[in-house]
Amino acid sequence: MRYPFSDIEPKWQRYWDEHSTFKTTEDPAKPKYYVLDMFPYPSGSGLHVGHPEGYTATDIIARYKRMKGFNVLHPIGWDAFGLPAEQYAIKTGIHPAVTTKQNIETFRRQLKMLGFSYDWDREVNTTDPKYVKWTQWIFSQLYKQGLAYIDEVPVNWCPELGTVLANEEVPEQQEKGYTVIRKPMRQWMLKITAYAERLLQDLDELDWPESLKEMQRNWIGKSVGAEVDFAIDGDEKIRVFTTRPDTLWGATYMVLAPEHPLVAKITADGHREAVDNYIEKASRKSDLERTELAKEKTGVFTGAYAVNPVNDERIPIWIADYVLINYGTGAIMAVPAHDQRDWEFAKTFDIPMREVVSGGNIEESAFVDAENGVAVNSDFINGLKYEEAFEKVVQWLEEKGLGKRTVNYKLRDWLFSRQRYWGEPFPVIHKEDGTHKLLPESELPVTLPEMESYKPAGTGESPLATVPEWVNTTDPADGAPAKRETNTMPQWAGSCWYYLRYMDPHNDDRFLDPEREKYWGMVDLYVGGTEHAVLHLLYARFWHKVLFDIGAVSTKEPFKKLVNQGMILGEDGRKMSKSFGNVINPDDVVRDYGADTLRLFEMFMGPLEQVKPWNTKGVEGVHRFLNRVWRLFVDESVENEARLDPAIQDVEPDEESLRILHKTIKKVGEDIEHMRFNTAISQMMIFVNEMNQKDVRPLGVMKQFVLTLAPFAPHIAEELYSLLSFFSEDISEDERQSRYSESVALAGVELSVSNEPWPEYDERYTVDDTIELVLQVQGKVRDKIQVAKGTSREDLEKLARESENIRKHIDGKEIVKVIAVPDRLVNIVVKG
RNA sequence: GCCGGGGUGGCGGAAUUGGUAGACGCGAAGGACUUAAAAUCCUUUGGACCGAAAAGUCCGUGCGGGUUCGAGUCCCGCCCUCGGUACCA
Questions:
Q1: What is the pLDDT of residue A131?
Q2: pLDDT tens across A708-760, in order?
Q3: How far is the CA of A708 from the C1' of B5 (A)?
Q4: Nucleotide nearest A824, from its CA to each C1'
Q5: Rounded distance between C-alpha atoms, residue A369 and residue A338, angstroms
């Protein structure tokens, strides 16, 4: 019988479902392992081949760890709020919950089709009111900690559409000719900046890719410097932030951000029109435009002057949009000789520059080298290098009360509200006196109202604002009229804590039972794409730390080890996309080759972290391999039924079989631990190639091989294992299947590859007795000989000198040196 | 620009961290089986030279240097490429 993947795969999926084979165990005698996939958004287009890449990797680990005796938590669920369902609802009037449910069903079917060993009893869904309740609860904790506040923040407002756009929507709408402007609106903010330092520091102890940690560090953007006050006419002063207080003497002008509050106050009469014009122009630029047009420096002089505190020099104050209002103090001292941006600005507007750090050529460009520069023209710090100069100036400023050491972060507070329907409502009401308060926990969850239409309110508010019977409510505390918050939470909210809910998914009394939390602790392995390198991972870490601070979790970080899987490109080497017509649908692959083939191929393509192109021929290659595996066990001459090949015999294994088996067990196990799935598979291919040549394939050897294959290709492994389980009995396929199924009742154990321990290898069989020794002259391979393992240096050297080929190269020459590395090589160095 | 990853056969990729470069797979070529095809199996497959063959010699891991008995691996300087980020003072 030929490899019947389309029969056996659904059969075993049903078997695992019926037997709850992958139900999470919490046996206190065993160690735990928590392996997690990044939360999928159930889009309408279903799974693409990128999903199963990471999922297969984690599934292999999960299955392997179970076999190694761990309690494994390997869950899945749905990050199901989000824009697409809402946009579809606006177009069709169909409730987003309906589309979401359909999409989830598709995803679930596809994941089951691939044989992933998730504990489906722990499936979570962010849109489920039972889940929403606890998302709102966590928000309440943030609120109580003073980490949530309301602010007027500019959003992307599109007047024609009467709606606020997400950043990623902006270019799309602009292409259609709509205008998008920055409009300040009332928004919820989360004070992630309060955690900036800890988010930065704690990165060090995480087992994450260095590149990703670096991205987070850059995003947090810590810089150490000083705030310095510059006096201006009247009692006012301008405070600036600088990382180079040692260049204060080189400040030849100042710049305020156009939005800086002092601008109106200081602008001299003759300059008011120009300044107002500039401010007006800058305000109409979106963030994008402001950075896209970054090449040319623009700005205007305010007519005002400030006094440089180190030398009492009067310097002009400009406004320019290269200074950003929301970084530092929104104002800078400009040192054109030692800052490239200031240099460009000064060149454009013909402002003088003064060299205060020697070592460069400021005619050509700003000199910013802090390592080699030495202070000049700088009074009491002349001759000092950067670090010393910095310290001395800061100390001086602090003594005089003119400034102080300061740390700044690029990281901004998190804009945490969206003007949308399909998201979690805030558990907040607004009182008539303008104050707001949390709803008590007993009122949670606040659920979404049914809608006539999902169109935005037109005012910039969410569609919820158009439902007065939902908006108008009373304060449960005093019965006074109140209005509900109409913003909803962003999609990040649900995905910020889902990994915690998996530990205790059905708890209606608490978001997570402390015992459960302590048991499962950190996620041991987290696998997902780089697209979440910064935001999701930073937000989740932030929430986790807040929960840690209130004692709700016991670890300060959520994810111990993190691995990014590389993208899978189309066969043409381009990103898979409908417009290129190069999208591979996993359904098609499974139909044509089976789930085991898809799993195996995705792992065989190359290292998990790497970007790699799809290759249909390669799929056929691994499919061929599984066919070979099948034929290693199954007698193809028997029709319609899988019967063991007569070559499988219950005999004492021969030395050769043991060697290849133990090498394979060792390599595959080690490769799984290091997530080198591609080389694990090639080792199994080597095993199959060798055993294929044997007329007798010892039962014990073959059984253990099936177990090593099981994490990768669980369906075929389960089928072969069931065959081997009844080796000595001549029974029909149906009987075999039913006895296997009823094994729990019959023998007290459920038969499944998943319940078998990972095979042990014997080191003895993994090393060969004889080794091919390389003989070199001048580092060039001249001969190879077989020697017994462990042959001494002296003997190796003697053998080398006896080699004819070696003699050819050394005869008549002076031997300078002989390097003999046991079990590896001999290298003879000669002269002349 | 800055930060990070990566350049190895026709292709995807191996190479125990300084010790046989090219495992395994794909593709290609030849052969067996077959009326034929598919499937399967066997052989060959980095390049050049030499040879009837066996063997042998030289070149070869983006480029140029260096360290070393020995470099894909370490050091210095470049080039290309992919990701991230971008006026963050």
A1: 97
A2: 999 999 999 999 999 998 887 777 778 878 887 776 656 656 778 888 999 99
A3: 32
A4: B19
A5: 9
| Distance in Å, residue A826 CA to nucleotide B71 C1' | 17
Which nucleotide is nearest, taking the CA of residue A534 and each C1'?
A: B84
The list of chain A residues with pLDDT below 70 reads 166-169, 171-173, 175, 285-295, 743-749, 832
CA A259 to chain centre: 36
- State whether ipTM is beyond 0.90: yes
SS3 A385: strand
B13 closest protein residue (CA to C1'): A606
B82 closest protein residue (CA to C1'):
A611
Distances (CA, A) of A323 to A166, A291, A327, A637: 24, 11, 8, 79
Checking each nucleotide's C1' against the CA of A783, the nearest proves to be B20
Measured on CA atoms in the order A618, A623, A624, A625, is the torsion positive or negative? positive
Question: b/e map of A213-251 (b: 16 or more CB within 10 Å)?
Answer: bebbeebbebeebbbbbbbbeeeebbebbbbbbbbbbbb
| Interatomic CA distance for residues A694 and A766, integer angstroms | 20
Q: Which helix (H) or strand (E) holds A601?
A: helix A595-604
Residue A710 makes CB contacts below 8 A (sequence gap 6+) with A63, A67, A717, A718, A721, A753, A754, A756
| Contacts of residue A82, Cβ cutoff 8 Å, sequence gap at least 6 | A41, A422, A491
- Which strand B nucleotides have any atom less than 7 A from protein CB atoms? 3-5, 11-16, 19-21, 23-27, 39-42, 55-58, 69-71, 82-89
| Interatomic separation, CA of residue A818 and C1' of nucleotide B20, rounded (Å) | 18
Structure tokens at A250: 């080189």
DSSP H/E element including A681: helix A677-692
Q: What is the pTM of this model?
A: 0.93
A324 vs A328, A336, A693, CA distance in Å? Answer: 8, 17, 72
Question: Closest residue to B12 by CA to C1' distance?
Answer: A605
Q: Which of A756, A755, A757, A625 minimizes the C-alpha distance to A678? A: A625
Number of H helices, E strands in chain A: 30, 31
As a whole number of angstroms, the distance between CA A410 and CA A196 comes to 9
- Give first-to-last CA distance, chain A, whole Å: 68
Q: Considering only CA atoms, which of A678, A679, A697, A677 is closest in space to residue A628?
A: A697
Q: Could you tell me the sign of the dihedral formed by the alpha carbons of A220, A221, A225, A226, in that order?
A: negative
Q: CB under 8 Å to A72, separation ≥6 — which residues? A: A24, A25, A32, A33, A34, A35, A62, A65, A66
Query: What DSSP string describes A169-219?
Result: GHHHHHHTT---EEEEEEEEEE-GGGGHHHHHHGGGGSB--HHHHHHHHHH
Distance in angstroms: CA A823, C1' B55:
26
Distance A665 CA to B44 C1' (A): 31
Strand partners, A644: A634
Report the nucleotide nearest the CA of residue A225, measured to C1': B89
Measured in angstroms, what separates residue A663's CA from nucleotide B57's C1'? 37
Question: Closest nucleotide (CA of A244 to C1')?
Answer: B89
Name the closest nucleotide to A779, judged by C1' and CA: B70
Report the nucleotide nearest the CA of residue A682, measured to C1': B24
Q: Which two tokens stand for residue A727?
A: 């080796």
The answer to whether residues A422 and A96 touch, using CB atoms and an 8 Å cutoff, is yes
**What is chain A's Cα-based Rg?**
34
Q: How far apart are CA A514 and CA A553, in angstroms?
A: 7
Which CA-bearing residue is nearest the C1' of B42?
A693
Give the C-alpha separation, A708 to A753, whole Å: 10
Separation between Cα atoms, residue A148 and residue A127, nearest integer Å: 22
Q: Find out whether A113 and A595 touch, Cβ atoms under 8 Å.
A: yes
Q: How far is the CA of A239 from the C1' of B63 (A)?
A: 51
From the C1' of B6, which residue's alpha carbon is nearest? Answer: A610
pLDDT the model gives residue A172 = 66
